[in-house]
Write a structure and sequence with these properties.
Blueprint: H1 2-25, H2 31-56, H3 63-81, H4 87-106, H5 108-113
Helix pairs in contact: 1-2, 2-3, 3-4
């Protein structure tokens, strides 16, 4: 689960760096747009990377960003699936990764491992009086 999130984040950062380099060194129609797009994609790639680190350290806050990343990945995968050429296999891989990660993040074992309590549940006191 953390691995999927880290791979998605790394792919976004690599794609953002590529856009930024092409904006700086290439001849895009709008260099400013290419550079700003690259910086934006890099910033978006940092979110799943931070979430992956949090998941590895079993931090409860990391589940939210990881869930949001996977939910956002689904429409991107759909767009890739409706395109042509090599983008279709990329859409399949992205959809499979997002659905797998969503399933893993929703499992009760994951929720318990991250220390997330269900609404209305009592805090675990381990028999210790306060």
């Amino acid at each position: 689960m953390a691995g999927i999130s880290a791979l998605e984040g790394a792919a976004l950062v690599i794609g953002g760096v590529s856009m930024l380099v092409m904006g700086l060194l290439g001849r895009p129609d709008s260099p400013q747009q290419a550079e700003m797009g690259g910086l934006t994609v890099i910033a978006l790639g940092l979110i799943p990377l931070f979430a992956a680190r949090g998941l590895l350290l079993r931090r409860s806050w990391s589940r939210g960003p990881a869930l949001i990343t996977q939910i956002i990945a689904l429409p991107v995968a759909w767009t890739l699936l409706r395109s042509h050429g090599l983008l279709i296999p990329a859409g399949i891989v992205l959809a499979a990764a997002a659905l797998t990660a969503l399933y893993q993040l929703a499992r009760p074992a994951t929720i318990e491992a991250l220390g997330i309590r269900r609404p209305g549940s009592e805090p675990d006191t381990d028999g210790v009086d306060a």
